[in-house]
Write a structure and sequence with these properties.
The protein has about 350 residues and is of the alpha+beta class. Helix content is about 25%, strand content about 35%. The chain is built from 8 helices and 20 strands. Strands 6-7-8-3-9-10 form a 6-stranded mixed beta sheet, sandwiched between helices. The chain has a 5-stranded antiparallel beta sheet with strand order 15-19-16-17-18, with no helix packed on it. Bound molecules: adenosine-5'-triphosphate.
Length: about 350
């Protein structure tokens, strides 16, 4: 009962100020996408437009062959989960989950069967007769998810569903949501500002920037092949080198690349884990400013004053290999040709 979503040329302005500037996006049946972007980029507005809580200034929304652009929230057959749990405090978990089915006039036996199915799927079985104030945040959010799924919606919309939970619960529920979404197969749009969450849970991540889609890609592709300097700056931890071409060539330490345009300055982006330490005389001379132990990975903050550069670099490497490295030490670092993403500015 899942359906593809088609968004065609969606725009939205508030008081003459554009919040969305032409969003074209197709979401496949059963796909989970994450809308990710900096505060104010328009992700919540887009989600609210898909839900019918907000009308677009122009553009169309289709769920499969249904044009839902002018339909009410109720007529769209969506399920929604918000950051705040929004459960009915005077109802038990069972009653909360069954509520939309009761409103739809389903029989008591059909409601019981569906509620039991969802209690099982969400691991809430033992909590069925509890009230929301007897539940943890994670359990409340599972209940909200079960209630959203109860009427078998065509589309599931999740608005920062994990952001009110603490880290450990969040990671667990994130994996649970991914599992449940794949089980029910409902086409899902998640809004988040947490890139790790987006990458872990979504089939595709849609990077939004100033009311536009900057890039929509599978998480691995987004990480390995950012299509723009903006995506590169947003995903992962990267170092940015601003390099002017000399004789049509870009050079940093041992790195060499033909410039895309002769006159323009270029951005060369290198992930923190792509920088590696090499013997003196190779690569860029740097000084270790700080060392941050993060369990299996350690991050070095390095200052670089070589090759006309003056900047701080971040290097992430397995902690084991950095045991002897201390702040104040001089090192040389380099990166492989293929690990650099180059954009003409
Ligand atoms: N009801 C409204 N009235 C006026 N302006 C609005 C309204 N809703 C959103 N905006 C503006 O539209 C732009 C996009 O907002 P939106 O909430 O969609 O961004 P967002 O990416 O979800 O941000 P955040 O991560 O901070 O929630 C912002 O400039 C915001 O101020």
């Amino acid at each position: 009962m899942s359906t593809p979503i088609h968004l065609g040329a969606i725009t939205k302005s508030f008081n003459g100020k554009p919040a969305l500037s032409g969003i074209d996006l197709d979401i496949a049946q059963g796909e989970m996408i994450a809308l990710l972007g900096a505060s104010g980029c328009g992700k919540t507005t887009l989600l609210r437009i898909i839900a019918g809580l907000e009308q677009p200034s122009s553009g169309q929304i289709h769920f499969g062959t249904r044009d839902v652009t002018d339909l009410s929230v109720q007529a769209r057959r969506i399920g929604m989960v918000f950051q705040g749990y929004a459960l009915f405090p005077n109802m038990t978990v069972r009653q909360n989950i069954g509520f939309p089915l009761k409103i739809a006039g389903e029989s008591a036996s059909a409601i019981t069967a569906r509620v039991n199915e969802l209690l099982e799927m969400t691991g809430l079985g033992p909590r069925g007769d509890h009230h929301p104030n007897q539940l943890s945040g994670g359990q409340q959010q599972r209940t909200a998810l079960a209630r959203a799924l109860a009427p078998r919606p065509d589309v599931l919309l999740l608005d920062e569903p994990l952001s009110a939970l603490d880290a450990q619960v969040r990671d667990h529920l994130r994996d649970e949501i991914a599992r449940i979404q794949k089980t029910v197969g409902t086409t899902t749009v998640l809004v988040t500002h947490d890139q790790a969450e987006a990458m872990a849970i979504a089939d595709r991540v849609v990077i939004m920037h100033e009311g536009r889609v900057e890039q929509a890609s599978r998480p691995e592709a987004l990480y390995e092949m950012p299509a723009s300097g903006y995506t590169a700056s947003f995903i992962g931890t990267r170092n940015r080198f601003d390099v002017s071409p000399q004789g049509g060539e870009l050079r940093i330490g041992g790195f060499f690349r033909q410039a895309a345009a002769n006159s323009a300055a270029h951005q060369v982006w290198v992930r923190a884990e792509a920088l590696r330490i090499v013997p003196a005389g190779q690569g860029l001379a740097v000084t270790v400013e700080a060392k941050l132990f993060q369990g299996p990975i350690t991050r070095l903050y390095l200052t670089c004053h070589a090759d006309g550069l003056s900047q701080t670099l971040k290097l992430d490497a397995p902690s084991e290999g950095l045991r002897g490295v201390e702040p104040g030490q001089s090192l040389h670092v380099t990166f492989d040709q293929e690990s650099a993403d180059v954009f003409a500015a």
